[in-house]
Design a protein that fits this description.
The chain has three helices and no strands. It has helices at about 5-10, 15-35, 40-75. Helix 2 runs antiparallel to helix 3 (about 40-75). The protein is mainly α.
Length: about 80
């Protein structure tokens, strides 16, 4: 059984993972545009790092939500 905070984040608010993933995607897009300007390359790099982390966390959260839902439907 999931701990209380895991259930709270994974089952009660699965849209949080979509928001985090959307942040990651947006960071990548903005970082891509910033790479067009040499003075903004450092910021672009950090936006790529933040975007990667956001997409990873959003995806892993969604995986956990789907696994928990599938586990609840499975008999036994």
């Amino acid at each position: 059984m999931l701990a209380r905070w895991e259930r709270y984040l994974l089952q009660d608010f699965p849209f949080i993972h979509l928001i985090i993933g959307g942040f990651g995607n947006t960071s990548f897009l903005v970082g891509s545009v910033f790479f067009l300007f040499p003075s903004l390359e450092r910021i672009a790099l950090w936006l790529f790092v933040a975007g990667s982390l956001g997409m990873f966390v959003g995806t892993m959260g969604e995986v956990f939500v789907r696994h928990a839902r599938r586990s609840r439907r499975s008999p036994g």
